[in-house]
Amino acid sequence: MPCQTKRTDRAGNEALCMGTYENSYVQRMKTTISARHRASRIYQLLILVLLLRPFGNLSLAWGMKHLSRIVSLSPLPYLRAMLNPYVAAGIILLILALLVRMALLSLADLTYVVPMTAGGYIISTVLARVFLQENVSAESWVGTVLVFLGTALVGPTSRTSTMHPLGPVRTHNRQS
Question: Do 127 and 58 contact (CB within 8 A), yes or no?
Answer without folding.
Answer: yes
